């Protein structure tokens, strides 16, 4: 019974607390003072150039990027070493007329060594045949 009384009291307090007094409801709304817009300078010909290289032999993380912008033309390239042992290189360009274009190529990390083919050893026929004949002679007869 005490729990019902506490719940009823809370609901009653909530009902009285949510009512807006007439004096506040009838008060005129005052507009906030206009905030002066901060004008930022517009660069009609933005230019930048940056690049970085990462070579971490502990983790095997090798990558690099270079990029240059002159107005609406952005050109650059990046490379990353893939897990298959090749380096993926992406050359890209972007402008307002052609959009973004990229050319991707894969390069081996090390030059391939010339393949060495081992020639089979030449064994004289009389030496190779002797153990086979001896093995046949010592086999027990089949019943």
UniProtKB/TrEMBL annotation:
Molecular-function GO terms, alphabetical: structural constituent of cuticle
InterPro entries: CHIT_BIND_RR_consensus (IPR031311), Insect_cuticle (IPR000618), Insect_Cuticle_Struc_Prot (IPR051217)
Keywords: Cuticle, Signal
Pfam family, one: Chitin_bind_4
The keyword Signal belongs to this UniProt entry's keyword annotation: yes
PROSITE patterns, per database record: CHIT_BIND_RR_1 (PS00233), CHIT_BIND_RR_2 (PS51155)
This protein's GO CC annotations: extracellular matrix; extracellular space
Name of this protein: Larval cuticle protein A2B
Phylogenetic classification of the source organism: Eukaryota, Metazoa, Ecdysozoa, Arthropoda, Hexapoda
């Amino acid at each position: 019974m005490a729990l019902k009384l506490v719940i009823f009291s809370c609901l009653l307090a909530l009902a009285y607390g949510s009512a807006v007094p007439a004096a506040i409801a009838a008060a005129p709304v005052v507009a906030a003072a206009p905030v002066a817009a901060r004008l930022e300078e517009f660069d009609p010909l933005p230019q930048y150039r940056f690049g970085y290289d990462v070579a971490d032999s502990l983790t095997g993380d090798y990558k690099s990027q270079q990029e240059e912008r002159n107005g609406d033309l952005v050109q650059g390239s990046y490379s990353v070493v893939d897990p298959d042992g090749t380096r993926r290189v992406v050359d890209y360009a972007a402008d307002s007329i052609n959009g973004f274009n990229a050319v991707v190529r894969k390069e081996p990390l090390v030059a391939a060594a010339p393949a060495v083919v081992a020639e089979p050893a030449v064994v004289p026929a009389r030496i190779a045949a002797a153990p086979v004949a001896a093995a046949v002679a010592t086999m027990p007869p089949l019943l």
